[in-house]
Backbone:
């Protein structure tokens, strides 16, 4: 990516977003109250209740060899903490390669792919946040994978279906999608027919909330998108086999999306054009909703665009059953910082409504976000150039006491990342 702003890490418990007061960067007092969201009530479970409520893994591609760094969220202390995992041994990864995406399946297995070697690495996640290589890992995708078909640097090019039984990997330069079945011990088996040809270079990938369809955008280098493609996902004896959706790819001004994300009911995709002044010299302050025809997977824009305060570069959507939150993230106009995160609810008819007190200035620390599987924790990732070095901060905000903790010492790793509830 060519941004002046890149990725670093912080965590916010999502329930806090219903009552945040606006304040500055790290240095203000915060009060939390009971407020409601204009789109309806929000119910969040907020993790497992175990000392290790969630883990975050970050690919460090700045060294030879590279590694996967691990962090643990402990909610049984007051205030809760997000710190480097105790006694954690970072597994080695290819030299100077931050990977091209990360995904967690079933809260038990972690996967990432590396274009420099054409390999997929897989690990079992321990209850203490440790990583142990699954059998036969790393997997060589193909002899030419690291040369003529190198994976490019993008987000959401490694994803799973909601059940965590399938792994999808988008090959940017080969314009194809690799699909693997995930075994009970985390081993990968290529689906018959994989890799499947794509009509264009796959960018952001997502499934619908039920795992019936796979969608991806034609994401270009300047953070824009021009069309959306869709495939139905086979089941039973054809598990993971991809078949193009009728009329796909979807082309036209309505489908010029940088990112689309499914929501848990499987009825809608939420999209953003991903524009920002610092990259494109233009912005699009809107979110877009597309309905999904349940029988065919054909998508159609629902109503007019939904206005936002800032131009959303990326979005995070609650995927847990009953989840209805959508968060947006992006770069500021100068490209040297981040806009405040915004929060919306999506109704059963596909209407987006802003959450009270959104946007949240305290959550202006990243350009990307992720929810955990429970939908109770929101993680935000972001970093800023400082004297030609990208500086990354790892920060947790305690939403019970209302006082944010100080950030941990700055880190200079950086790469793809993923958050997951503890197994």
Residues:
């Amino acid at each position: 990516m060519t941004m002046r702003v890149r990725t670093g890490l912080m965590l916010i418990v999502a329930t806090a977003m219903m009552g945040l007061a606006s304040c500055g960067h790290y240095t203000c007092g915060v009060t939390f109250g009971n407020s409601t969201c204009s789109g309806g009530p929000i119910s969040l479970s907020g993790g497992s209740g175990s000392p290790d409520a969630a883990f975050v893994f970050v690919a460090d591609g700045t060294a030879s060899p590279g590694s996967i760094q691990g962090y643990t969220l402990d909610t049984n202390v007051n205030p809760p903490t997000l710190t480097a995992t105790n006694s954690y041994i970072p597994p080695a990864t290819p030299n100077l390669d931050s990977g091209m995406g990360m995904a967690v399946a079933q809260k038990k297995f972690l996967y990432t792919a590396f274009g420099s070697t054409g390999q997929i690495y897989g690990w079992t996640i321990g209850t203490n946040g440790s990583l142990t290589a699954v059998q036969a890992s790393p997997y060589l995708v193909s002899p030419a994978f690291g040369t003529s078909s190198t994976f490019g640097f993008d987000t959401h090019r490694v994803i799973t279906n909601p059940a965590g039984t399938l792994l999808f990997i988008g090959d940017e330069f080969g314009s194809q999608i690799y699909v693997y079945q995930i075994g009970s011990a985390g081993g990968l088996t290529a689906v018959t027919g994989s890799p499947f040809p794509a009509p264009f270079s796959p960018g952001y990938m997502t499934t619908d909330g039920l795992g019936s369809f796979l969608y991806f955008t034609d994401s270009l280098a300047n953070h824009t998108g021009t069309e959306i493609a869709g495939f139905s996902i086979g089941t039973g004896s054809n598990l993971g086999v991809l078949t193009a959706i009728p009329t796909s790819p979807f082309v036209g001004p309505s489908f010029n999306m940088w990112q689309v994300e499914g929501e848990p009911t499987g009825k809608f995709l939420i999209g953003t054009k991903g524009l920002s002044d610092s990259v494109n010299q233009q912005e699009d302050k809107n979110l877009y909703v597309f309905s999904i025809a349940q029988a065919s997977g054909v998508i159609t824009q629902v109503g007019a665009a939904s206005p936002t305060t800032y131009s959303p570069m990326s979005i995070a959507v609650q995927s847990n059953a009953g989840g209805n939150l959508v968060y947006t993230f992006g770069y500021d106009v100068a490209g040297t910082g981040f806009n405040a995160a915004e929060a919306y609810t999506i109704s059963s008819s596909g209407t987006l409504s802003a959450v009270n007190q959104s946007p949240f200035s305290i959550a202006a620390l990243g350009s990307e976000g992720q929810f955990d599987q429970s939908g109770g924790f929101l993680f935000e990732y972001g970093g800023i150039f400082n004297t030609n070095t990208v500086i990354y901060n790892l920060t947790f905000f305690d939403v019970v006491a209302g006082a944010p903790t100080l950030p941990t010492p700055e880190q200079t790793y950086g790469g793809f990342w993923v958050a997951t509830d503890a197994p």
